[in-house]
Amino acid sequence: MPRRSSVLLINEPPLQxxxxxxxxxxxxxxxxxxxxxxxLQVSEHRIEGYTWIYNSYNAWAKQFxxxxxxxxxxxxxxxxKSGYLxxxxxxxxxxxxxKWYRIDYEKLDAAYREQIDYQKTDSDSxxxxxxxxxxxxxxxxxxxxxxxxxEQTTQETTQETITEDIQYIWQETLVHLKxxxxxxxFKTWLALTVPTSFDGTLFLVSAKSEFAAEHLNKTMSSLIExxxxxxxxGQVKFxxxxxx
Length: 244
Description:
244 residues, alpha+beta, Arc Repressor Mutant, subunit A, GMP Synthetase, Chain A, domain 3, 2 domains, 4-stranded antiparallel beta sheet, 3-stranded mixed beta sheet
């Protein structure tokens, strides 16, 4: 008889996340937040009126086996910045720097309501374009709204993001690249590069000259993208430009 299953299909407790949540925080962020919600439901740690959980990045990595600890750290920091995840240190509880976490359910629900506010009824969801063809106005307007929200958020937090998350990701990337290329190549092409932006998909870096930027884009982009993808935990494209 033909096989009716595979070792890669669900035969163990799955990690799940709603598509609506993934639209807000990305698929990895959604899975991490959902798993934290699960542990919060069974946690008995009540501190200052809230239920909390704690774990190290290495411990979380055992649950999210496709993500490395530094990638998990990046996603958790992104959830903290968004306000959906709240972290604290209660040294009187653990006597060390252990981070405790809880979810801001009110903020999460507010973000979801804002998301669905863009949706319209089926009768209003289609408009006619100049050629008389019907178009999905909901998808277009919702995408435009998300883009505007992203641009506004980016403008408000660009400096903070560059000095924290993007710097961290690129420094980690350089550490790995230093092990994969010769010292001469690293010093010539990579050592003086500076991260400039990252939108979750495209990672932009500045090189000291147009010649160096062209070299990185043509000969090293595939390697850099593999390293970035491993660190972030999701597919990342790389592009280098010249100047600061």
